[in-house]
From TrEMBL:
Keyword Transmembrane helix: yes
Cell compartment(s), UniProt: Membrane
Membrane topology listed for this record: Multi-pass membrane protein
Keywords, in A-Z order: Membrane, Olfaction, Receptor, Sensory transduction, Transducer, Transmembrane, Transmembrane helix
Source species, domain of life: Eukaryota
Organism annotation: Sipha flava
One BP term from GO: signal transduction
Transmembrane segments: 6-27, 83-109, 115-136
GO MF annotations in UniProt: odorant binding; olfactory receptor activity
Name assigned to this protein: Uncharacterized protein
InterPro entries linked: 7tm6_olfct_rcpt (IPR004117)
GO cellular component, one term: membrane
Amino acid sequence: FMFILMLAYCFNMIDMFLLSYGWILVFQYNVLCLTFKDLKHENKRLTENDIGHMDVNIELKNVLYDQLKLFLKMKSYYKCSRLIVLANTVFCSSIIITMTFTFIVTFSSSELSSVFYLVKIASTDLYVCFQIYLYCKLFENLNNKKDSVNFSIYSSDWTNMNLKSKKLLLLAMNMNNVNWLQMKASPRRHVDLQQFLNVLTTCYNIISVMVNTLKK
């Protein structure tokens, strides 16, 4: 029993770390998008040697460096968390199937069941569903924030920038397009809210088959 408690504690600590770090990345991508949107130039045209352009060029280079560091963080995070997230999804799906089937069998049996026992089963089901939802919501937000970087670059005041600044913005856009990275459950399926619905649908189908088999 103590081993099970320690195992559950370890899993919860891992989940807390992965989810917390993931939301930190979402926040950092949001800051990056706001930084690109807030890049402003003077309305008057300046020469490339002007101090104003030099300041913007330096700022753009710093933003590009931050963008590269953020992508490397995200790449390492995906590499470390992918197997854990997929294993957690499979494990949680098994719990949902088992607990829901147990709840249905217990509730429909002729024996007088403890209400507290049924509440515990239902609570476990809801907790596990919420856990899968958090992961799917997290990675959907990460994908959306990363994709919104290019839109933020378009929203910057790039029309009034000099040629060097425009080239730096184009480099930032290319960097975001080339470094295309998403958490995938399979080659064609991403970990997002659609995947969460797919998991629930699969669990429902399996439970329906089990219940129909039990009735025969």
